[in-house]
Amino acid sequence: MASVLVFLPVSTFPRIRKDWLRKQSSSSFITADYRPPIWVKILPALENIFYGANLSNILSAHKSTTLDVLAWLCYGITHFGAPFVCTLALFVFGPPGTAPLFARTFGFMNLVGVFIQFLFPCSPPWYENLYGLAPANYSMPGSPAGLAAIDKLFGVDMYTSSFTASPVVFGAFPSLHAGSATTEALFMSHVFPKMRPIWIAYTLWIWWATMYLSHHYAVDLVGGSLLAGGCFYVAKAKFLPRLQSGKMFRWDYDYVEVGENKDEYAYGLGELDDNFRYYMYDSEDWSMGSSSSYSSGNRSPSSLRSPIEPDHESWEGETLASSLPDSPSKR
């Protein structure tokens, strides 16, 4: 039963994921008259503006079998297995509800990314390598780019035919490989904060692999990661279950709190506010009819000086009650 429950969160992908797949597969049947123009020059231009060079061409300039396999393991294998591994880890070690929320956020991020790719089709680096900056059209086939070396290495056709017949040839921006890796890294960092460097390294591995294989520009990766970050922080603010100290497994939780803690302030100001309230509103040790000193530190009423006395005499413990006139002789 537990093994079935583990993969139930993945079953929340279908409605979103199937819509995503249907839109991808049906896009090839939409005539060019109803599809937006393909942007060929904008991504290379942005690449040069932001980074001063085409990072994809730089990284892919020096090829080797070792680098080909390293990029393929990340881009073609780990990318597809990581969502299931993350779901399992979040289900077992995260608060109840974390894994289903990860699945919904992951699916929604991919769905939004595909809509952007349809509305803003852009050519990937391999197109520039093959055709330069010549205008593109929807009848052009796709390309496996750097993954063709994997087919040649293993003597099989895993990527050449599939990428050539891809229904979304010009879906470079945003990179859903980068978006998926960022979503996984953010959720895993939430549940396993001490392992955050590992998740960051995995995301950077994906970034490198996509550029080395000539499938994405650096701006595509930034766009995909920003999209994933936006989806995650919306989910975190409203729906993400909060961790509780001393709880390691989901079964240790007696109750679940979701969303961000509204009692806390950004940049660690919550602790400053607590101290302020402690010193200013401690009703037990600082009352109108008491001359006792503060319970914290050496601050006491006798050490305070009146701001209206010209000679700056000390208060000397006199209270408001003792200063009230009670006889004509004191007037």
Q: How would you describe this structure to a colleague?
A:
The protein has helices at residues 2-6, 13-26, 42-51, 55-59, 65-93, 98-119, 125-131, 148-154, 160-164, 176-191, 196-212, 218-238, 269-280. Helix 5 (65-93) packs across helix 10 (176-191) and helix 5 (65-93) packs antiparallel against helix 11 (196-212). Mean pLDDT is 78; it is low at 1-25, 265-274, 276-316 and 327-331. The protein has 13 helices and no strands. It is an all-alpha fold.
Distance between the termini: 87 Å
Q: Which parts are unreliable, with pLDDT below 50 for 5 consecutive residues or more?
A: 1-25, 265-274, 276-316, 327-331
Structural classification: mainly alpha
Radius of gyration: 31 Å
* Beta strand count: 0
How much helix, percentage-wise, in residues? 40-55%
Give the overall shape: globular
Mean pLDDT: 78
Please give the largest β-sheet.
Answer: none
Tally of separate helices: 13
Q: What share of residues are in beta strands?
A: under 5%
H and E string: HHHHHHHHHHHHH
